[in-house]
Amino acid sequence: MTATSGALHTVLGAGPAGTSVALELVRRGHAVRLIDRAGSGEPLDGVERLAGDVGTVDGALAAIEGADVVYHCVNVAYHLQTDVMPGIQEAVLGAVARTGARLVVLDTLYPYGETRGEVMTEDTPWRAATAKGKMRAALDENYLAAHKEDRAKVVLGRSADFVGPRVLNSTLGGAVFPAALTGGEVLALGDIDLEHSYSSILDVARGLAVLGENPSGDGRVWHLPTAPARTTREIFTALGDLVGHPLRTVMVDEPRPFGPFDETFMNSYAELFYQHTEPQIMDSSAFQRTFGVAPTPIETTLSQTLEWYRGFLAARAKD
Predict the structure, then answer these.
(1) What mean pLDDT, rounded, does the chain reach?
(2) Which domain of life does the protein's organism represent (predicted)?
(3) Phi-psi region of 29 (alpha: psi -120 to 50; beta: other; left: phi over 0)
(4) Per-residue model confidence (pLDDT) at position 3
(5) What confidence category does residue 6 fall into, taking pLDDT thresholds of 50, 70 and 90?
(6) CB-count burial class (<10 Å; 0-12, 13-18, 19+) for 29
(7) What's 261-285 look like in SS3?
(8) Does residue 5 carry a pLDDT above 70?
(9) At a CB cut-off of 8 Å and minimum separation 6, what does 88 contact?
(10) DSSP 78
(11) I want to staple 203 with a disulfide (CB 3.0 to 4.6 A). Which of 126, 131, 225, 260 is the partner?
(12) Are residues 20 and 132 in the same domain?
């Protein structure tokens, strides 16, 4: 069963994920509304952009008015997450419970905690020991409980680290691609000879759109389509081949400010640095089998990302 024709799909959060989801939904022929606090940003063909504050139930109700499917892609700065994200969940979950809209939640791997290299599937135990990991696990338990108790219709899509167009604040983002293109110093966190999963932001968008169109997937966690894990060194080598020269990597074996990551960010990220000192391997085969959606090869994603960053850097140079 898929969502009915003419349904309104409302995306909360206009960062790289929310924007990519909105564009993917338009590509699929849906009516799309994109909500963030400002209600402004780059023009997106086919997307209605509105301002909204989902920090309260009333604000969330106003934001999702008329929506049949809601995509929760809201995020906040790392150092604010444990204080702010639970309130946003309460507001958004309360709003969809009142309206009956289905809720598709973009999620992270944080609830699993340290895995010591174990491949992460949807059946992997949640063993988070960090503040952010425990917070995310608690949120997910609330989402799943709301669905089980028939208070709301909810599905969760988990992603590995983002890479792709518009992705800046990622370990494979703004500290890598601009320097790769210009010959500058590329940030290399932790042990880059460990396997590490990276999710194309475009695959994340496709995956969430598929969940939005298929209520049969509700009530559980899904791993969104993600290419097979490679070592970060292999990815850097492939990226160097694409730009025509080896990358100048700067090895960072402990959290410290570098490039776009300032001291506030890195101090907050420190508890999650284990992601770069043990393999981070995510398996999305359940989603692929169920919905027939294969992940984009990492080489293609790197090429797409380089193309976007070339345009991004050229636009900045004109300002």
Answers:
(1) 95
(2) Bacteria
(3) left
(4) 41
(5) confident
(6) exposed
(7) ECHHHHHHHHHHHHHHCCCECECCH
(8) no
(9) 54, 55, 74, 76
(10) G
(11) 225
(12) yes
User: Whose structure tokens read 């009333």?
Assistant: 58
Which residues in 63-101 belong to E strands, given as ranges?
69-72
Torsion, CA 176, CA 178, CA 183, CA 186, rounded to 10: -20
Only one residue has tokens 């800046």, namely 168
In a shared domain, residues 142 and 243? no
Sign, CA dihedral 173-204-165-33, equals: negative
Same domain, 184 and 207: no
123 SS3 class: coil
Do residues 121 and 185 share a domain?
Answer: no
The total number of structural domains in the chain stands at 2
Domain with 114, as residue range(s), is 8-160+199-227+283-291
Co-location of 234 and 219 in the same domain: no
Residue 97: both structure tokens together: 């419970």
Residue that is written with structure tokens 């809720």 in the block: 103
pTM of the model: 0.96
